[in-house]
Task: inverse folding
């Protein structure tokens, strides 16, 4: 991943995370604020309901109290007790209820039966259980109506003064008109659910009836959505709060608080439902989310712009510096980068250009120094090598000059010895000059596909007589006085490599001759070739005295030799040939443990796959 991509990713993630965190915090805070407001509105509405309920209860109690103390009801009660004839008073309850503005009113005789009923005149003579044990307080009661229905109301029972056995029970409805008197806050609705048949079944046992849930405007749409929470309150008798979803959309949900309304016996006669709409909160949250998405999108676009700007100011110059550094590593010392600013990046570019300028100057000085050192070393080595054969030549010439004064027979003998010595030393000079010439003009390899096994076999047969029948026998033995045994270990499968046969033969021959020189008292020479998958390994191993670590480090250095009459160019030439083939050469050795030269050639199969010219 590039620096530009990393910056873009970091900026985008940072902005997104910050926006997400802020949005989440705001949404949570909004929910808390709205919930608190809903709770406050609900508590206020419940308080208002309780006040209105108490006010209505007081009105009912006051109206019933006035009727019980009036002269009209006292006279009626006295006649009922004296005559026990209720017929004259069958319609009295309707008249008294209308005058007292009560929705329900019944006159109960001394025997506990109904004398007159304003809401259901046909019920005269029926018992009224509600008056038994009724105290001075008002209470909730479900009243049966002629239509086979019932209605919930607030009732009060009072005994007529002077005739305690004759009682009046009156009340007012608890319905939508009662709810309309409540000061309802905005976005809050109040509903009333009443159920029960007034008989054996209690309100909790009665199945949920959606028509019984009413509001100020009548039956509530979607009443079934409130069924679970209303049933729970009817069953437990405890207030409850829950979120009710009126549709699949969140904005149509309400925070519903359900409060049970109980009778004197603790039976749940009705429940009050306060439904605070969550639409304002949901719309506010949607608005916040929309703002958050907009801010996040803007932030991401801003991050892209900033990353592009930073890429232009920072990453692109750094990439140019990296490419320039690669060019310098490849040897292009004149590489420069453009300085576009005066900040730290520009300072870095100027420093790089200054560095390459200094490197170029130092390189030229180093090249000149290396050239002078190389020529001096070459002159020193050449002078050293030429001095050895020139000294015998000088002595030979001086002997011949002195022998000129001797008799002819003696002169001829000295002349023959001297000319033989001169021929040998001249041949030595030719050999020295030829080696220096070979090292100075190594030919370029002419590559062709060969089998590495053939190259090993050719070198072995050049220096040792063949006595075995197969390469695996390892019994090719020299006939020389050194008594060196040669063993070949070669894979039976072909070992294809791309090499110059003659140059490779010269390099391997040089290694074999060095190995033989390392075993003056005889030993074993092992030539091996095997495949290592992507490369072919050739080994030339001897059982000589081995080398120290210091000798191994300087082994391939030109003009370095451990031989008495060596030029120090043999292994340098070998390394040059191997390097020109794209191969590598290394040495494994230790004092007294012999020496092994390891050559690794790239496999010709691998070369053919990557280079179509081969």
Result:
């Amino acid at each position: 991943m590039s620096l530009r991509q990393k910056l873009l990713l970091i900026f985008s993630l940072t902005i997104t995370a910050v926006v997400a965190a802020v949005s989440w915090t705001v949404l949570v805070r909004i929910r808390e604020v709205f919930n608190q407001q809903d709770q406050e509105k609900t508590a206020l509405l419940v308080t208002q309901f309780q006040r209105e309920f108490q006010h209505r209860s007081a009105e009912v109690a006051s109206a019933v109290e006035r009727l019980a103390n009036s002269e009209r009801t006292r006279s009626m009660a006295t006649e009922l007790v004296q005559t026990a004839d209720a017929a004259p008073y069958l319609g009295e309850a309707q008249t008294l209820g209308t005058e007292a503005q009560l929705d329900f009113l019944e006159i109960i005789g001394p025997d506990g039966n109904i004398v007159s009923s304003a809401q259901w005149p046909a019920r005269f003579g029926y018992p009224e259980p509600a008056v038994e044990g009724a105290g001075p307080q008002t209470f909730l009661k479900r009243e049966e109506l002629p239509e086979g229905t019932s209605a919930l109301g607030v009732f009060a029972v009072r005994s007529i003064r002077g005739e305690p056995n004759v009682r009046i029970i009156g009340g007012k409805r608890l319905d939508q008109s009662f709810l309309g008197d409540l000061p309802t806050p905005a976005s809050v609705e109040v509903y009333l659910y009443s159920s029960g048949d007034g008989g054996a079944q209690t309100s909790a046992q009665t199945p949920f009836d959606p028509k019984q849930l009413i509001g100020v405007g009548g039956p509530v749409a979607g009443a079934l959505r409130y069924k679970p929470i209303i049933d729970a309150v009817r069953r437990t008798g405890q207030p409850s709060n829950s979120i009710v979803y009126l549709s699949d959309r969140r904005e149509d949900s309400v925070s519903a608080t359900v409060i049970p309304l109980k009778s004197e016996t603790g039976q749940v006669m009705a429940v009050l439902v306060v439904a605070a709409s969550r639409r304002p909160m949901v719309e506010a949250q949607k608005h916040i989310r929309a703002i958050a998405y907009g801010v996040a999108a803007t932030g991401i676009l801003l991050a892209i712009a900033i990353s592009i700007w930073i890429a232009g100011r920072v990453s692109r110059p750094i990439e140019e510096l990296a490419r320039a550094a690669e060019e310098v590593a490849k040897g292009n010392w004149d590489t420069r980068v453009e300085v576009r600013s005066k900040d730290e990046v520009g300072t870095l570019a100027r420093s790089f250009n200054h560095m390459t300028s200094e490197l170029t100057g130092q390189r030229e000085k180093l090249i000149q120094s290396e050239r002078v050192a190389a020529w001096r070393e070459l002159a020193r080595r050449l002078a050293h090598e030429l001095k050895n054969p020139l000294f015998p030549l000088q002595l030979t010439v001086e002997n011949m000059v002195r022998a000129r004064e001797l008799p002819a027979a003696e002169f001829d003998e000295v002349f023959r010895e001297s000319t033989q010595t001169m021929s040998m030393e001249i041949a030595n000079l030719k050999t020295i000059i030829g080696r220096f010439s070979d090292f100075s003009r190594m030919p370029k390899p002419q590559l062709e596909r060969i089998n590495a096994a053939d190259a090993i076999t050719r070198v072995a047969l050049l220096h040792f007589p063949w006595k075995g029948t197969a390469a695996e026998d390892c019994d090719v033995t020299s006939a020389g006085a050194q008594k060196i045994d040669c063993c070949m270990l070669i894979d039976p499968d072909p070992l294809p490599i791309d090499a110059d046969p003659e140059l490779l033969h010269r390099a391997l021959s040089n290694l074999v001759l060095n190995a033989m020189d390392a075993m003056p008292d005889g030993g074993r020479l092992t030539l091996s070739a095997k495949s290592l998958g992507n490369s072919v390994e050739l080994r030339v191993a001897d059982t000589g005295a081995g080398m120290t670590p210091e000798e191994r480090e300087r082994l391939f250095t030109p003009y370095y030799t451990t031989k008495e009459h060596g030029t120090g160019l043999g292994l340098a030439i070998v390394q040059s040939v191997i390097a020109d083939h794209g191969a590598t050469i290394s040495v494994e050795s230790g004092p007294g443990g012999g020496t092994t030269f390891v050559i690794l050639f790239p496999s010709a199969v691998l070369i053919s796959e990557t280079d179509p010219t081969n």
In short: The first strand starts at residue 104 and ends at 108. Confidence is low (pLDDT under 50) at residues 197-202, 467-473, 606-614. The two ends are 36 Å apart (CA to CA). The longest helix spans residues 3-69.
